[in-house]
Amino acid sequence: MRASPSEPNASEVHPAVGLAVRELGQISYRDALALQDELVAARRRGQGTDTLLLLEHPPVVTLGRSAHDEHLLLAEDALAARGIELVEVARGGDVTYHAPGQLVGYPIVDLAARDARDVHAWLRTLEELLGAALAELGVPWRRVPGWTGVFVDTPEGTRPRKIASIGVGVRGWVTLHGFALNVDLDLSGFDVIVPCGLSGVEMTSIARELGPRAPHDLSARTRDAVRRAFLRRLAGGGSEVS
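The structure assignment produced for this chain is given below.
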């Protein structure tokens, strides 16, 4: 289902604690970026409320500020022939792939208003919130020291399996961009890049990790679990971001 970026499919607002969760369905990367720009500008003016955008993108490869040419394995025309858009963006991180079956989240959060002016702590918070959602869904998770993102909890010495990528931007201590959590997308799409520049990492998804235990409504359950995790942590305001 497609939705206009200015008219989300669903909206869950908690005015008493200042957090809105908006589900946009599938929209283009550029439309989602334009909406983020609008929301960030409003928060910097002291207007509106912190917002979590939940959505999917059509196939697109994004190049962050730290992207290396060698991590993009196909030229732009070859990507276009496969129906994959290529976009350069002002976020942290390297190369990322988005496609239907992946839950993308863009938290627009005023860190200064929460007395949490620490971008590294914000990255760790995003990892923790996605980890909480994964645990609720029955997927054990872990961090890998030195790498940003969320990984499946595999035995030491085995190849890390990455299930969520994270890359953020900050303007005047208001965050934008965010995370991409692999739910049930076709993982072969990652073959066009070196995901996040990590050649020794295998990409995975919730559906793959759960196998036959995956429920038929996995996408909806994942959105609900992520929404609950963010509301539990961020809905209180103050210094709850850590």
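Interim note for the steering committee: The radius of gyration is 17 Å. Residues 1-17, 237-242 have pLDDT under 50 and may be disordered.
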